[in-house]
Design brief:
CATH class of the largest domain in chain A: Mainly Alpha
Largest sheet of chain A: 2 strands, antiparallel
CATH superfamily of the largest domain in chain A: Farnesyl Diphosphate Synthase
Family (chains A, B): Belongs to the FPP/GGPP synthase family.
Strand content of chain A: under 5%
Keywords (chains A, B): Magnesium, Metal-binding, Transferase
Number of domains of chain A: 2
Radius of gyration of chain A: 21 Å
InterPro entries (chains A, B): Isoprenoid_synthase_dom_sf (IPR008949), Polyprenyl_synt (IPR000092), Polyprenyl_synt_CS (IPR033749)
Largest interface: A-B, 35 and 36 residues
GO molecular function, one term (chains A, B): metal ion binding
Protein name (chains A, B): Geranylgeranyl diphosphate synthase type II
Oligomer: homodimer
């Protein structure tokens, strides 16, 4: 297992090195106010999960790593573009303990730098040397549109109290899971994997992504505060429509439901009191267990997709390790 | 000449038909709040200059019009995306006598719909059936990044009084000319034109674009109010760094320059008085004539590039007509 862990770390280091070199060279001669925020964004850090997935899939299917690096950079730059624009839309002042771009520079600069990043993702994609480049670009394009759809549904949900579990799962599939799945599949395509393998690793990514996002909902409410990076209960305070809240709304008894709705409609409240009250309703409706079961189900579905991939069993260890490390994170 | 005019109109009609069908079908099943603003934007009207340029170049080089239509739609959707985001950045409430997207819907919706449009442009590009598709996508991508750079320079210039003529010309090349040039070249590439023809029609577009933008500066100040769609002198009121103003700043005498600077720094003023005073300085510095000469020079350069294109002379008539119609517009 140690060798596998080392390989995963090596891929991550390789990616981080490439990314920081690229960030430095971006727009050497262009307008500073366009390119400096992009460099700032790309140097903010993060686990670089998506590009590592591209490199990993390329490696597992016997591809040439150089062919996958540009696709990996493309997906990371695209992901950071979505975070940048999401921060404007969510009015989020901080990102990874640093001021978000629209706070550090200006909203106009954040809009335009993000626009440039989404196009620069294509510049990197086009540098990818793969026989199936057009398939890669098409997959990326359809995925990117899905991510926009997911973000729109997420914003729509803010103003609704009647979001169903099904709608919520579709939203997180679009907003989170498809880009993880696309990353794996891009790596597979860059290595010219078979169509069925490319599809299986895509499904592995979808199910892992759903498990990952539900885990996020769970941790926000039930993580160990010492290990958790953010404040526990932030989603409850912000009335965020999470898997927990939506299930609680669906399952709450005649007596409980007005209580929950009441908390959602309060304009001023004591935060700790609200968190405790909503968590008590979660307890009564049993939504923590429902969430844990759903995470487990998606995780197991991911492992089944993994089993179906036609590569040596020992090669799959690294994907299992990656999946495990994603699910074990506390932040 | 009548036949040529009819052909140009026919291409425009064909394009408008396709675009309105596409607008109707966009996002039939996706989130309404994402796709409705896109449909609204695409139905706002406009001369559809860029996509007509794609279709025209394809036709002149003997291409299959069906191959060029998707590239034409891509460039129009991209152009409308830039207008949408520019309107947020410029805080412009109206576009073509209708509320701009961020006013009609919301700023968040305008940001996200624009993001989706820029990616949808690639969806259309990828549908283009051309042997040189990757060249077309690369050209489009590099052009799109240049357009972002142009917009950034334009915003940078708002806060500067020392913009040079050279810097200004580079800004309008990036913000306006390259997309016109790219449209022509995409059409040429879709018809598999020779590299030198593709380059010549690109240069035709660049020079026409520069002439077009300088004409815009001139009209804003000197158009016939009855024929001009907007209020005369709007650029002067807003201190917009135009070719006229930048030249006036460079050429104004020791005595005149403080007067001009003073008007630029006034926070409250009578609009007509400011327009009259700045125009008097333009008169003294002779910048109207300098602008007219520059327009003429770029227009003639465009015609020289046109001469060098290796197609029948009678086929060039339609490009000459297009160039003329662009320069004769009063709005």
């Amino acid at each position: 297992m140690n060798e596998t862990t080392d390989r995963l770390k090596a891929l991550q280091t390789q990616l981080i090195d490439h990314l920081s070199t690229e960030a430095k060279n971006i727009g050497e001669t262009g307008p500073v106010n366009l390119y400096q925020p992009i460099e700032y964004t790309l140097n903010m850090g993060g686990k670089r999960l998506r590009p590592v997935m591209v490199l990993l899939a390329n490696e597992l299917f016997g591809g040439n790593p150089e062919d996958a690096m540009n696709a990996a950079l493309a997906v990371e730059i695209f992901h950071n573009f979505t975070l940048l624009h999401d921060d404007i839309m969510d009015n989020a002042d901080m990102r990874r303990n640093k001021p978000s771009v629209h706070k550090k520079y200006s909203e106009n600069i954040a809009i335009l730098s993000g626009d440039a990043m989404s196009i620069m993702a294509y510049r990197y994609l086009l540098k990818t040397k793969a026989a199936r480049l057009n398939e890669i670009i098409s997959l990326f394009t359809e995925t990117a549109i899905e991510v926009c759809e997911g973000q729109q549904y997420d914003m729509d949900f803010e103003n609704r109290l009647d979001v169903t579990v099904e709608e919520y799962l579709e939203m997180i599939r679009l907003k989170t899971a498809v880009l993880l799945a696309c990353s794996f599949k891009m790596g597979a395509l860059s290595a010219n994997a078979s169509n069925s393998d490319a599809e299986n690793i895509y499904q592995f990514g979808i199910n892992l992504g759903l498990a990952f996002q539900l885990q996020d909902d769970l941790l926000d409410c039930y993580a160990d505060q010492d290990k958790f990076g953010k404040r526990i209960g932030g989603d409850i305070v912000a009335n965020k429509k999470t898997f927990l809240l939506i299930n609680a709304m669906e399952l709450a008894s005649e007596k409980l439901k007005p209580k929950l709705t009441d908390w959602l409609q309060q304009d001023s409240f004591d935060e700790q009191e609200k968190i405790a009250a909503v968590k008590a309703i979660y307890q009564e409706t049993g939504v923590k267990e429902i969430c844990e079961k759903a995470i487990n189900d998606y995780y197991n579905k991911a492992l089944i997709s993994l089993e179906q991939i036609g590569i040596d069993e020992n090669k799959k260890t690294i994907l299992q390790l990656l999946a495990k490390s994603i699910m074990e994170r506390e932040h």
